[in-house]
Amino acid sequence: MYPKLGISQDLQYYRTIADTTHNKLLKLEALDSVISKSRHKDNDAFIVFSYQYISLAKEIDSIELAAKKAMNLQYILTNYSSDPRKAITIIDEVLANKYKIKDSFLLGGLYLKRGGAYFRIDRLKAIEDYTLALENFGKKDSIYIADTYLFRGQSFSSLGKFVPAGEDFKKAYTYYENLKDYEYMLYAHQGNITMYSMNGFYDKAKIERDILIDKLIELNLINRLVASYYNQSVDYKNTNQKKLQLKYLLKADSILKKLDIKESLDFVIINSKLTEYYSKDYEFEKAEERLDLLNNKYTVIEGDLLAESYYCGAYAVYYEKIEDYEKALFYANKKIELSHSLNHEEDKMESHLLLSNIYYKLEDYKQSLDNKNEYYQIKDSIYNQSSANALAYFQTLYETEKKEKELVEKNTNIQLLEKDNEIVKKLSLIFGIIVILTFGLILLYRNQRDLKSKKILQEQFSQDLLQSQENERIRISKDLHDGIGQKLLILKNKLNESDNKTLVNETIEEVRTISRDLYPFQLQELGITKAIEHTITQIDENTTLFISSEIDNIDNIFQKEQEVNIYRIVQESLSNIIKHAKAEASKVSIQKLADKIIISIKDNGVGFDFSDKYQETNSLGLKTLLERTKFLKGQMKIQSKKGDGTIIEFTFPVS
Hints:
Strand content: 5-15%
Structural class: mainly alpha
Number of helices: 28
Helix content: over 70%
Radius of gyration: 30 Å
Number of strands: 5
Strand order of the largest sheet: 1-2-3-5-4
Shape: elongated
Largest sheet: 5 strands, mixed
């Protein structure tokens, strides 16, 4: 049965011919007229008559005619009907007769369009199709070649493959520039900005994105601003700038409202992320308003895996924050299924962290630890990949100015680095499995022996997790210092341009800073006393906080693991003062007595109510300090009032 059209009598005239004639060529012409007149006016009619046209064209062996209609139908099926799989099936049926297609535009176009459908459900297959499109397009198809490089670059970038993505964006930009297609030149520019962000070059990304936004406004491409504003909000989220994150989400939302866009992926993404933001900020009324908007447009979401992933993530965060953990668990599990289908690593990582938090609140500590380890494993993998990509990025700048022999030599170094990363990944996986198995055996053994040991198990769990984090910090710190740091130094020594040297110097210093923050090597080199004094000096010299100290020598009193926890207690206490206390001065005192060590840290800041602060779900700093104190079998006392400064005193027994 045909859909109701109501377009014009002219359309009805061609429909009647298509329904009544027995002449296949005449029917094909009539269907072509109906499709042409219903396009952009009645999508349902366009889909129905396109199916008929493609089927009849194949029946009379007009494969190239079927190819044209299949290409036109893909966009409507993927974006209007949210049915990319149907689009793929139709194009597959046409490609089954590809040997009958002589036009390079049609053959390359079929792969290009199928890649566009796969982009919604499988980025790796999308890349394969874009590559096939490039192989089949001819020289006269330059505009479509440019599009293919752009879309393949976006696919590579979304999978974290920044080097091939950068090459594709550059080729696309050059094609568009030669064609004087300035709008799409800006799309290629956007691709490079995304890569800067994903590599952690947020300042560079911000500079380039501001230029892009000005160009979009100048060219009146207002609808394209949504993506730029959203991507900037993601960068601010990654750098913990919450107010700016919200500002740019609302900017994107204002564009959607201005243009009255309510049935697009952008609409789903922006409202989902605003739901998550408001939920985490405990503004539940605002979060529920955004969820209502999403539910009113659920037909846009259903069937689109990417849209469903954002939708489920929003609901999972919302239900977790209102403490409906069963519903939160349902949506979090749905999101992780979708992230695996989309093969998107960052979504997988966020989903595992979300599940870990939910299981912890449900007191299912094994599941919580399993998901936390999965989170760290993916995070480590992404970090290693990003580090390799950053090195590859600088390597590319260098290689373009060298001879073929040097290119081969440098490529060999990259391959060795990739092999090293593979070994690190395998070791991380083995380590994760060992931790999980060990924890499981301990949990089972203790449950069998004493069902009343739940409190002890929880404390042990927290301490094991702290130690696991310290071990992980040590390993990553050594990898940074001994692996990537050394290779950057080699690269620096071989660079000629001063600008590049400056950039590499900054990168080396950043790697060293991260390495020092991850694990305090001063403990090994200087001892615990000097390490603490060094940290105090660094904070005193590099912040507005004035710190005085009276520190007795406590070297060789504690074991190495205990020294690390003592160092972290001092470090985290001072960090809390800098972040929250608004203090002008602080004093650190360490007394060595006959049977104990007393550490006192005072500040003249705004103070706080300990009981209220400790009950907050995001007060991880105080809870971590307490766990470290328990690990050392010590005591922690806090004296604080709002507006009257804070004194934190730690007492540790000396055996």
